[in-house]
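Quick one: structure for this chain?
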Amino acid sequence: MAKPVLGSDPLARLKARSPERWPGAASAVEGSAGAGASGAAGDDLDARIATFERRLQARLARFDGRIERDVHVAPGLDPTIERRINEALHRLEERVRRVSEVVEELDEEERQGLLESIIELGEVFQRALSLDTYRRYLNNFGMRDRHFDVDPFGQESDAREAVLPYVRFLYHRWWRVTVQGIENVPDEGAALIVANHSGVLPYDGVMIAHAIEHQHPAQRRARFLAEDWVATLPFLSTLIRRVGGVRGCRENAMKLLRMGELVAVFPEGVKGIGKYYHERYRLQRFGRGGFVQVCIRTGVPIIPVAVIGAEEVHPVLYKINWLANALRMPLFPVSPTWPLLGPLGLLPLPSKWTIVFGEPISFDRYRPEDAKNDFLVNQIKEKVRSHIQEMLNEQLAARRSIWLG
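Got it. Here's what it folds into:
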């Protein structure tokens, strides 16, 4: 039998309470006594209390019987589980108590140090769960056990030699690049190579640099400027910098040109690599003309370049803007192969490439202060853009096939 909830007398507590806690009942009793009916009222109240007591005792008896009938040990349940749980809780409680005692014994300075340590530990866990941590790790992938023979912009001869077989395969076998007008690139001295941009990834910069280095009589090395968003790509950003790519900004271009380097720029920027397939070979806006200002200040010529074939390596059919914003990318393209085929869809299609180097555009007649003339800068910018568009149209008219050239 279960222990009675209210003891042997269920109304013992109610009876023991003082009348002050029941002012309504006390006033009612006193009012009844004043009316001369105290005896009858008292008998009636005792009768009601007795009836309520019998009913409560009957309900308690039924409740006890239900407990004895329904409460039983579930079949197959380990009887030691409850004991083990209680022991674990006791151990945890004991450890918490010990930690609390230790903290109470510390002075204010020690408590502050402990708090700072806890906060620092939380920051460590936060970094461990952050995608930026793994992005930085991938960017530094493969940086061990190699010679750091690098220039001020991060180019390494070891890395160039390591990727050269892959670049040669893409250049000669996969895209079968044909070059025209390579003699327009100067044998020495600085020059700014301005080309159309496409292909989602900066394949065109690598192919232009490879063509100049291996098909130009002077075998010069050209540096190409990459967009800022490329620096956020795991592993690829480090690889591009190691093989000769440079972060695209006016300051870096000025430094390279003053060092006598060949520098390739793509004024279309992200708008160029993100063109839809039906917009291919239609040059986008050439920014604000920063490349023209660089040429006016340094006096170096512009070599216009038209690249045919790069716009088909990753045909952009659709762009998912909300996913690009979530991944902090300028665009998230959807092509016939990506993301449908997964990682296999990242492989570029084997289109036939043609790279045409136009005649140099001289800036000898301009003074450095002319770079502040916005009207002049915009005029030259549009002339260069129109010239490259004409080169593209001429090559497209002569092309027979995307895959055969």
